[in-house]
Specification:
Number of domains: 2
Largest sheet: 9 strands, mixed
Oligomer: single chain
Distance between the termini: 38 Å
Strand content: over 45%
CATH class of the largest domain: Mainly Beta
CATH architecture of the largest domain: 6 Propeller
CATH topology of the largest domain: Neuraminidase
Radius of gyration: 22 Å
Helix content: under 10%
Length: about 475
């Protein structure tokens, strides 16, 4: 059982008091939890929105919401959903201390909690296989969300609801191969601007996509951008003076290394400025925030080694010159820390959330860190843990998933036995036996690359066979 004691430190500065700490939060099933979004609440409190997996069935996951105070103490937690696949991906303040949430469900959905944790609505809109990654509050009090839908090919998706959660419209934006949105922003003079990525059969390169839609969801214009080399995407969009700031990840000309970038476009989609953050490691942008007219904040994941995945936080000026850089990593020889979301605090502190695996036991927790304005925070205090030899055979969820081109398959075996990992396509055809050998009791990571098998985008299944009759299968989604 993982037991972590954290210490928070209070620092003074010239205008306010900083409160800094880092904490993990175990879920109700003490298995797999993570955070994808941060949202302000009442006073200095805030919400952490994500997911929790059921202990006995990794195909069952629930929406997981925590309300924390400024010191990271838990005020309340909620899990909601049914025995299906529910991820809380994004959230926004309702303006009254509560929050509105959407994400990845069996159908398109939204949920609203008040400040006391009461579920005010949970509404399903009937469109299956939808994932929403960003939601914003509209001028009239309603909400606009953007994402994608897997429907043979990936289609772009957007929906508009009123202030009570009633659906006003939802639209699919087709593609011959892939179109998906991950950010949405209110446009000047009405309508909305979506950002994401697109790939078609004609040009076999994933490009950054920015789409302007009107109040009814109809496309006003589409713009495609090749930032650098191949396989670019756009993760976030923020309105700035006379245009928009867009951030994401792009590959180099060989596809060997991915780096984060941001660009500025005007209200017609014309590029005004592009900045790439060069790195010798694979890095990907997950969130960004505009702190002031000349101070931007970014959080990136960083592939440090095979066993360790770190996060990088950057503070830059408006041209991308780095003012402060911080690597957030596990203090051990394995595991990872993944920061997905940013929330500036009222006193100038910065809050980041995601998930962590601080030892090699494959049990992830919600991870939240609060820094001062220059990214300082206290170290982890004491970590004690019991025996990490697994008690059961288990195939843990692959991460990342969806993936491109690599993901890590993680499995546990409580005793020495022969282990087989097999890959199947969506029709059940065996594609390859990835692993077939004897293993000692323990926890294992298998790094899988789609490039080795020249796989196309789509759904696949990985099966673990181990011990006397143990078989477990999970879905993988390759998204090029």
């Amino acid at each position: 059982m993982l037991c972590i004691i954290y210490f928070f430190l209070i620092f003074g500065n010239c205008w306010s008091q900083s409160i800094t700490w880092q904490k993990t939060y175990d879920g109700p099933f003490q298995y797999k939890e993570g955070a994808n979004s941060l949202c302000p609440s009442d006073g200095n409190n805030f919400y952490v929105v994500g997911y929790t997996y059921h202990t006995t069935n990794p195909f069952i996951r629930y929406l997981y919401v925590l309300k924390l105070n400024q010191y990271g103490d838990t005020i309340w937690t909620k899990i909601n959903g049914w025995e299906g696949q529910i991820f809380g991906q994004t959230s926004v303040s309702d303006g009254n201390g509560g929050c509105v949430i959407t994400g990845d469900g069996d159908t398109s959905f939204t949920a609203r909690f008040d400040s006391n944790g009461n579920l005010r609505w949970w509404k399903n809109y009937g469109l299956r296989f939808v994932q929403c990654f960003d939601i914003k509050k509209a001028i009239d009090g309603g909400y606009i969300a953007a994402g994608m839908r897997l429907s043979g090919d990936w289609y772009g998706y957007a929906m508009r609801i009123d202030s009570s959660g009633n659906l006003q419209w939802q639209h699919l934006y087709p593609s011959t191969e892939y179109r998906g949105y991950e950010g949405v922003e209110l446009a000047d003079n009405g309508g909305y601007v979506l950002c994401g990525a697109v790939m078609d059969d004609i040009l076999d390169t994933q490009q950054v996509l920015v789409t302007r839609i009107n109040e009814s969801g109809n496309i006003s214009w589409d713009k495609r951008y090749t930032i650098y080399g191949i396989d670019g995407n756009a993760k976030k969009i923020i309105k700035v003076d006379k245009g928009y700031l867009i951030g994401g990840t792009t590959g180099d000309t060989t596809g060997a290394t991915s780096v984060a970038y941001f660009m500025k476009i005007d209200t017609s989609g014309n590029v005004r400025y592009v900045k790439r953050f060069h790195s010798t490691k694979n890095e990907a942008l997950w969130d960004m925030n505009v702190l002031s007219s000349n101070r931007y904040l970014f959080t990136l994941t960083r592939d440090s080694t095979f066993e360790i995945l770190s996060s990088k936080i950057l503070i830059t000026d408006s041209l991308g010159n780095i003012i402060k850089e911080k690597i957030v990593t596990t203090p051990y020889s394995a595991g990872y820390i993944w920061l997905n979301s940013i929330l500036p605090a009222a006193n100038g502190d910065l809050i980041f959330a995601g998930h962590s695996e601080l030892t090699d036991n494959d049990s992830t927790d919600v991870y939240v860190v609060r820094t001062d304005s220059m990214l300082n925070f206290p170290p982890i205090g004491i970590i004690n843990y019991e025996n990490i030899i697994p008690k059961l055979f288990k195939l843990n969820p692959a991460y990342p998933n969806p993936f491109n081109p690599e993901t890590v398959l993680r499995f546990e075996i409580p005793k020495s036995t022969r282990v087989m990992l097999s890959l199947y396509d969506v029709t059940g055809r065996l594609i390859d036996i990835l692993l077939n050998e004897n293993k000692l009791a323990g926890t294992y990571h298998y790094k899988f690359s789609s490039q080795n098998l020249d796989l196309s985008s789509g759904v696949y299944f990985i099966t673990l066979q181990a011990g006397p009759g143990f078989i477990q299968t999970q879905k993988l989604v390759l998204m090029k």
